[in-house]
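Q: I have three molecules that I believe assemble together. Could you output structure tokens for the complex as a whole instead of separate predictions?
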Amino acid sequence: MTIRKWIERIEGEASVQFEFEKNHVSFATIAFPHSRGMEAILQSKPAMDALVITPRVCGICGHSHLFAAVRAIESVYANCGAPVEISQKAESIRELTLTLELIQNHLKWLYLVIYPELSHLLQEKIADSCRLKGAYAASLATKILAIFAGQWPHSSYMIPGGVTCDPTHVDSIRAEGLLDELIRWFEKELIGITLDEYSHFSSDKAFLTVTGDMEKIEKMLKKAKMHEQGFSYDRYLAMGEHAFSKSSKWVNRRMAKVHSKFVTLEEPYSIGEKTYAKNALYQHNSFETGPLARAMIKGVPFIKQMYRQYQDSTYTRVMARSYEAALLLEHCKKLLHSINLEEPSYIKPLKKITALSGEGIGIVEAPRGSLIHSVILKNGIIDHYRLITPTQWNLSCGSPKTPGPAQKAMIGADSIETATFTFRSFDVCSVCTTH
Amino acid sequence: MKSRPKLLWLQGVTCNGNTHSFLNYPHLSYILETFEFLYHPLLPATYTLEEIASCTQQCDILIFEGAYDPRMMRAGARMETLVQHYGSSATTIIAAGSCASFGGMFKQSDPEYITGLGFDREIAKGPFAKSPKLINLSGCPIHPEWLGYTLRMIADNKVILIDEMHRPKELYAYLAHHGCTRNEYFEWKVDADQFGTKEGCLFYKQGCRGPMTHASCNKILWNDVSSKTRTGSPCFGCTEPDFPRTNMFETKTNMSIPQDVPLGISKRSYLTLTGIAKSFRIPRLEKRLIDDNT
Amino acid sequence: MKSEPEKSINTKKEDRKASIMQTALKLFSTEGFYTTTMPVISKKLGMSVGNLYNYFSSKDELAKELMLYISSMLGEKLREINMSDKSVREKMDMIVKMYFTIARERPELIEYFLRVFLSNREIFTKECTGMVCVSDFVTELMLFFDDGVQSGVLKDQDFFSALGLFMGYLGGMVFLNGEEVLPHPLSDYESAIAENIYNALRKQ
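A: Yes, here they are, computed for all three components at once.
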């Protein structure tokens, strides 16, 4: 039996066709029906315009696209023998605003998607106002981001050589005040204990001290038996270089170096339905990317402990993303304190951008995982631009023999509802996938 | 209880940026209490997208995000059908963002077919061209306060005055230049010689469109705290029908003379004034705003 | 509204001022700026030095007023050319012709600009810095260049590199003419010079 379902609230929609055998999902195909041709829009534009165009790939993670685009252009400079110098201050500010985008994403996902979906799944009603909590907390994060980047969404403040802003202590103090407010909210509403205690959990036993919405969400996950399903390949990939994440892959419980040359794009498996998504593979294999992958590679004790017990179940995946928000809040605090405002924000590249011809690649860890921008410039004009987004890894659509990570995770689910929840545990972004 | 006006948030060719921008609105709970959301891509709503796509409901306010492509299918329904059905019952149609207003960024996906709801760039075209019901809230993305203002004006039955591009005058009579913290540098023609400083005007080299762009970004700040120009980025003119332009980080000049000058000012007058203002050396404006000297 | 007698007094004063400027202009451009003192000017005009100071508070002030007058007069002529619906190439001919006509009919104007204004910048530092006193003329040249680039005829380049080529060439020819080096009258060179400037500035 085949049942088709539109899945929405994933930054657009996806059409999923579920195959059932003996009342369980035996296979599912995923199609993303909309595309805007971002790569074609970028074609023949001056390189700097990529900093305005690529954030518009996505309304929720556009800042990650900006970061990937600026890294890609800077990599062209380096490959042309004219590496761009960047101050520590500019590096820290970039990392700070990226981190804040991840935080707003995770909190929105938790309150506007996961919590309501769990309540729907278990028929336990939650108030509409509860969902707005996520929007409120996210707006605090974007407010801090905007102090440095001017606005969120769609800032273009990262440029080759640094950042455009020139903050004073008035700005950084304001940012610290807002971050404190966000952390207090996090402690009061979400976890009921201090962020410091929470982010230093070393065993899942410690979770017993957690109250607030996170306690409810965790209980609901267990009640819905999410710790017993949603297992995928147990192969993880994180390619972006950041202080909060390590660039590596994790296969068969072993870490190994990664290189972008092993990343390929392949045509999706289709059963006659039009999809614009291309599958992203590493050495022709499916990999899971995102917060769970980052935690496994970085070795986050709490998540590793959870993994030992529940492997890469939907439960672990959801918990890893929620927990990452806490780690990132801690990271933000450190970053804000570390910024030396005396340093330059911007160091003018020695070579004119119109004199650049060559290739470049920019990789960052976006909310949903590794995001790759590759560019070829000819005299500063974009000759070719390629985007590989995290959902292209997680939601790749393979054949029954080679299903993608989310496809594999949905196999065995006893209903469309539980399969859909597992689908959502990957935090799907439709607009990024097809771009 | 009085029935609340029915609001439908529909998406065309979009990045979801307007949806996420509006989630920053500080008074969302007021909006959710005042209006019934038939559908919204993220906020709690009465119906699913599939139910909306069956065109059995009617709305009072249609908010449309993204560029308009009549051929696009959304949850199985053709966009032309959806927009005609919901647009005919709505008393107000709000184009949320520049794509919905003028075609914007995603007009470039397929320039032949894609337009805004009532404009194709600056030309009246599209399903609601010249419709008195149409309100354009251009901007890439929409500013949450601008949409909040519009919805509250509607809820309070107040008249919204609009300009010739159907944008509310109270929001778009201002230029992005108004309230810019770099205004004095503009007055005395002191340009920012490079990025990354709070000093200097971005109009001369860095491509700033502030003096030519209808937008209250420097009056009603972004995320309540800042704006592009306040953080050293040029205004890209994202509320105007010609957004996105090309070479957006550079001012288009002809023999060092800016091609475009502030709105409504003749180039002759502008250059006369510039020549004079540029002749004065003002040490206070040439040094760092905050330096080590006492 | 001003009363009739008052108006006539003003007009009279303006006329007097104009004749002072005319005389000073001649003296400055022929005798040099430093040798032409206020007493020299007043003597030539047949008026007392004290009375001359009623019209101009200093020699520098007089020098500045002269430059403003020349710039506005040249600017006005250039503006007429700019506003005409001629092509950039035709306008180029018109500008060169206009400049050489003035150099022939009122050589003291151009002489003053070249020999006094450009050669004695220290006099003009206070209130005539940069472009202030030649703004009318320079603005019109800017508009001419801007129009030329926008219409795709002239090459986009730095303003001053174009200005230097344009004005340096014209000034040089007027200078050579003044030194009586040129074998033919200035007007004979008009079309060749316009063509040279056009070729140098046009988009390749």
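A: One point stands out. Chain A has 15 helices and 14 strands.
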